[in-house]
Design a protein that fits this description.
8-stranded mixed β-sheet; 10 strands; elongated; STM4215-like; alpha+beta
Length: 247
Amino acid sequence: MAASTSFLYVTDLGLRALLYSKFGDILNLESVNKGVIISPKEIALREMAEKRGVVELEFINIWRTRTAPSWDRQRTPTARRGMTMGYTNANQTDIDIVKAMAVDLSYEVWFWTHDRDKLNLIAERYLFWQHSNPNLNINYTVNRVDDEGQDIDSEAYPIELDMHFGEMVDESTISRKFEEGTMHIMRVPISIDGWVFAYTTVKSIQSIHVTWYDQDSITDYEEIIVEDSNQDTEMEETLRLRVEIIT
C-alpha cells in the first residue's frame, strides 16, 4: 500500500474485506476484488461488469456517505496528546508521535442477486452479527528506518473499530421486471466508530546542559558541562556580571 494512502481509505478497504468474509459464501463470490466494490449504487452494476468483463448480478457494493467528527470520543488521551510509538532510527534521536481524531463513518451497503432467498440468508446473518459485538480490526504498522532511510524494523498496533447496524431496506426491481428484469437488491446501513491519524516525528532530548550557581556563596559557581555550541553563553556572561557586582 502506498505511503500516501489515507486511513479513511484503509477503513473503506477493511470494511470491504470484512463484508466479503462475512457474506461472500452466500453469493458465491470468488474473490474480494471481483466480489465487493467501493462504488455508489447508481453505477455499481456498470462498475462490476467492467471489472469482471461480463455482466453478472451477484455482488456487493459499499459507499461511505458520511464522515463527521465524533466529539464525544475526542476526550481520550490519544486524541488530545497523542501516543509515543518509539524511536525511528538507530541513533535514537527521532521519536514517532501519533495523534488521533475520532470520526463517525456511515456506510451504505448493497447486496445484489437473482435469488431472493439469498437476501433472506444475508438478512438473517446480518441480524445475528449484531449479537457478536461486531468490530473492524485493523493493524496500524510503524516502520523504523536508519539514517540512510533503510528499514530497521516495524511494529504493528492493533486498532479495533466498533460497528453499528440499522434497518434493512428492500430496493429490488420487481415492479420493473418486464422492462429491465428482476434484480433483488437489499440495502443495509453500517456505521463505524473510526479514527484518523496524524503521524509526526519529533527530536528526542539527548542531553540537558546545566550551569549551577551556589546561592549561599554566590562568588563560587560550578559549571556542570563544558561549554559547547548549544550553551547559552550570553546568559552565562550576564550571570558572571551579577557575581562581580555582588562581590
